[in-house]
Design goal:
Layout (H helix, E strand, L loop, with lengths): L1 E7 L4 E7 L5 E5 L5 H10 L3 E6 L5 H4 L2 H8 L2 E4 L4 H4 L2 H7 L13 E2 L5 E4 L2 E7 L8 E5 L5 E5 L2 E2 L2 E2 L9 H12 L7 E4 L5 E2 H7 L5
Parallel strand pairs: 3-4, 4-5, 5-6, 10-13
Antiparallel strand pairs: 1-2, 2-3, 7-8, 8-9, 9-10, 11-12, 13-14
Helix pairs in contact: 1-3
């Protein structure tokens, strides 16, 4: 499994490209901005994006969808619970002081807890982790190297803020404890912002969970 993560946009959202080295199929998680960088990362490994997965629909995680989808024809997938937030991209842009809001691209599939997204030999289990937003998702890639794309639900040493629209602190803690801490301690965690961590490290040291 090929994994490349890089921060994009004003708020430095972590965008991750995950590829199958055999079939050259790929999944892109949270193309928040700078779509040309995402496309360049795909070209460098000769990968074809089959699915665009969105952990949640805050503006900094969805800003590059239109260009990426136009260029690849990949399916856009997110949780239906985040559609009210997705429908307000213009309001989000105004709140952030941005002159132009990204285009709201049509969603191909709404995914939820227990769904599996496949591309080539890649298999991503969908974990619904409401709290940061009602439709927040995490994506778990099984295999010898267990990998979790945690969005803004879990960070290294912290958790996602819950003071924005639809946020719920108690719900977020419950999501982390029941769905994320159920994973193996060795699971590599790529958060929506900032450095990587592991489930074991957060279980032992995250002040919100200890």
């Amino acid at each position: 499994m090929l994994v490349r993560t890089f921060p994009v946009g004003l708020l430095q959202c972590n965008c991750t490209v995950i590829g199958d080295p055999v079939t050259k199929d790929a999944i892109v998680v949270d193309p928040g901005d700078e779509p040309e960088r995402v496309l360049a990362a795909l070209r460098e490994q000769d990968l074809t994006c089959r699915a665009i997965l969105i952990t949640h629909t805050h503006l900094d995680h969805v800003g590059g969808i239109e260009r990426l989808k136009d260029a690849t024809g990949a399916k856009l997938m997110l949780h239906e619970g985040d559609m009210p937030l997705y429908d307000q991209l213009k309001v989000q842009a105004e709140w952030m002081g941005l002159p132009v809001a990204p285009v709201q691209v049509e969603v191909d599939d709404h995914v939820t807890q227990g769904d599996v997204v496949k591309a080539g030999g890649l298999s991503a289990q969908v974990l619904h982790t409401p709290g940061h937003t009602p439709g927040s998702l995490c994506f778990h890639f099984h295999g010898d190297d267990s990998l979790l794309l945690a969005g803004d639900t879990l960070f290294a040493g912290s958790i996602g803020r819950t003071d924005l629209w639809g946020g719920d602190f108690d719900q977020e803690i419950a999501s982390i404890r029941t769905r994320l801490l159920a994973l193996d301690d060795r699971t590599r965690v790529i958060a929506g912002h900032g450095p990587e961590t592991t489930i074991g490290r957060e279980r032992r040291h995250n002040p919100f969970l200890t």
